[in-house]
Specification:
Elements (H helix, E strand, L loop, with lengths): L1 H35 L3 H38 L1
Helix pairs in contact: 1-2
Length: 78
């Protein structure tokens, strides 16, 4: 039961991480386009939107890692 739960949690985290990183990548490409058009200030503003997405992706990765370690520890003690 716990293994099934942790597997589903990690799957969900993986999807959420991918979503945020894909969105961050799209924003980076937009910022690059803006910068190439001479709109450096708009490019910078766009890049600042990436910060939150990267922070959230990192937090989700840390949480997935904790779930995985907990599951591994539970298996060793069983």
């Amino acid at each position: 039961m716990a293994e099934e739960f942790s597997t589903e949690v990690v799957k969900r985290f993986t999807g959420e991480i991918a979503y945020r990183l894909n969105k961050a990548s799209a924003l980076a490409a937009t910022a690059q386009t803006l910068n190439s058009q001479g709109l450096a200030e708009h490019a910078f503003d766009t890049l600042m939107d990436i910060e939150t997405l990267i922070f959230e992706a990192t937090a989700l990765l840390n949480a997935a890692s904790i779930v995985n370690r907990s599951e591994n520890e539970a298996q060793r003690t069983s």
